[in-house]
Design a protein that fits this description.
six-stranded mixed sheet, 28% strand, Deoxyribonuclease I, Chain A, 14 strands, alpha+beta
């Protein structure tokens, strides 16, 4: 008998427990040298925003949540314990510290057992080059759902800060590498196996004055389906950019062909967006402000599958 499972992805925007430093302290020095806690006074860091992030996650009713922009395993467990129902709600956690010097990592919370986790943060374009391919990581996680394994590839690609065209080559390399990783494990007909590539891929599907999308070879790969495309075209956006009042799809769930027929619902949860995101006319979560506080500038995406 088929059973339903809900899988989500969410860039929760700076889920930190770090300390706020005084004036004159440069972030670049902190990440290089560390810090002495005795020299700083502390305040709670965005407590209302954390509460709204939690309300948004709880609204998903997800069994498995892939997260982006999490400071570390301690921050994730603390957040889970305080806001999401603790160990009983999500007993299984995966996070491996990645490449971002700001300590924004990718992670997984799961009601089902995580039976395997692997990081690809160490992968380089060539052995001779020093730069890592992934800005954060590509976190591979196998989860046993009613005894059946499903593999997640959780990603957070290079951002478009510094212009989309100028940063395109890095995202293109990341997209190619994810596809290569999946193919290396499952073969050329990878879609016959149960997996989902998900997360904040930091590019939208359309071509504009900045050029073509960097992730087309992944989002349009014939072994997966970009399930957001099942929604009406004007409902496919997952991110609000206040500077230009623009709305785009940056967050993806690329579901393998073997799982696509099992999808019963695709939903984008927007109630945590700030009030100034005027394209969303629905009710907000209690406590959301015009600009701040907010759950995130991204909207979580959730799919319901029959396994």
């Amino acid at each position: 008998m088929a059973r339903k499972v809900r899988i989500a992805t969410f860039n929760c925007e700076n889920l930190f427990t770090r300390h706020r430093f005084g004036s004159g302290i440069r972030e670049s020095d902190i990440t290089k040298e560390g810090w002495d806690l005795n020299q700083n006074g502390f305040v709670r860091l965005k407590p209302r925003a954390k509460e709204l992030t939690a309300k948004t996650i709880n609204a998903l009713k997800a069994d498995i949540v892939a997260l982006q922009e999490v400071e570390g395993i301690a921050a994730l467990k603390s957040f889970r314990n305080k806001f999401l129902g603790g160990f009983k709600a999500y007993p299984h956690v995966a996070l491996i510290g990645g490449n971002d010097p700001r300590l924004i990592d990718v992670a997984v919370l799961s009601k089902y057992p995580i039976i395997h986790a692997r990081s690809y943060q160490h992968v380089k374009e060539t052995p001779q080059k020093r730069n890592f391919i992934f800005s954060r990581d590509c976190l591979e996680v196998d989860i046993s759902i009613y005894g059946k394994p499903v593999t997640l590839y959780v990603n957070h690609f290079k951002s478009m800060n510094g212009r989309r065209a100028a940063t395109r080559s890095r995202r293109l390399l990341q997209a190619k590498t994810v596809r290569r990783i999946v193919t290396a494990r499952f073969g050329e007909q990878a879609g016959n196996h149960p997996f989902i590539i998900l997360g904040d891929l930091n590019d939208y599907p359309r071509t504009d004055e900045q050029g073509a999308s960097a992730i087309t070879l992944l989002a349009n790969w014939d072994q997966v389906e970009n399930v957001v495309a099942r929604l009406p075209e004007d409902e496919r956006w997952t991110h609000y950019y206040a500077h230009k009042d623009s709305y785009s799809q940056l967050d993806y769930m690329l579901v393998s062909n073997s799982l696509c027929s099992r999808i019963k619902r695709v939903h984008i949860e927007r109630r945590g967006l700030p009030g100034r995101a005027r394209r969303f006319i629905g009710a907000r979560l209690k406590g959301v402000g015009k600009s701040n506080p907010k759950a995130s500038d991204h909207c979580p995406l959730v799919v319901e599958l029959e396994i």
